[in-house]
């Protein structure tokens, strides 16, 4: 393709594998919570790159950090360490329960590391028989074969041949189901403190406390997948901080890099000891570019002021959704916490979440769905009151149009 040839949405169909079906418009520039497409049309961004762009687009602190690191050191491999990786590790340890960190590039890779570590730890301390992993139906933990098998959504894991074994699934928020299944053969229980892809469903405190107790009883590790809920998304640095429990292993990605690929697995000294030299690795994990950016993200996000903005924006969005629903009666409930919220379609609009999404884009609002029945909100944590208002105005126009066409 020469430089003068026009790039359009049709170019995608010509050159890309067909596993995605992107929107007709192509974003070309972003600033804060605003995005512009090829035609110059402006959008308010409530999608955040699927809960990734926690500081919006092209945040000055991240741009400056990336430019500075780009002129110093890009990559050295894990034959060596590097200063940005060590600085970021110390930041994460100082801010959380963790004593040790492993870096990767994506949530799937962080979860892969967590699952391998749980199996390795159980093998070393209890024997080969302790290999069962328990996870939840409708969970999402990544797209590697191991993580997609643990994820509990057959649509994503079927059709690729034999799956990794010793993986069982139960209903989310159902403590009795876990109690019936867990045993001394269980090496780990992996859950999201709030299911994201599964429909923006928070775990109850009672459920989490019960899961923690059952894991302790059976010497199983509790793994929290905080890829979507972490780094300020729910109004705390990590969702576990607003719960009654502390996990044994926690995974983070998405917002951790604010748009630059980076992930981390956090755990204790005693559990991390099972990752002896050579047992696991990642070519780019701990890359100095990624770690420098993530350090800047944490410095910006982990402040009382940012968490206050997250909580204020949640209140504003919930109120506007209530106002819209009073007029149009489309939502059964609004679930979630902080700036990971889900508006659930009522009986009349079952299966039509994507209709509202499409209408919102036409009105200048980028949004997400979480399954066929939930509109998902995951805007930047630093979104302003006026930007929320502008985005909700667009959503109200979109809802009006969908309702009119349905009547």
UniProtKB/TrEMBL annotation:
Transmembrane segments: none annotated. It is an enzyme of class 2 (transferase). GO terms for biological process: L-arginine biosynthetic process. The modification N6-(pyridoxal phosphate)lysine is found at residue 254. One of its GO terms (cellular component) is cytoplasm. Its cofactor is pyridoxal 5'-phosphate. Belongs to the class-III pyridoxal-phosphate-dependent aminotransferase family. ArgD subfamily. This is Acetylornithine aminotransferase.
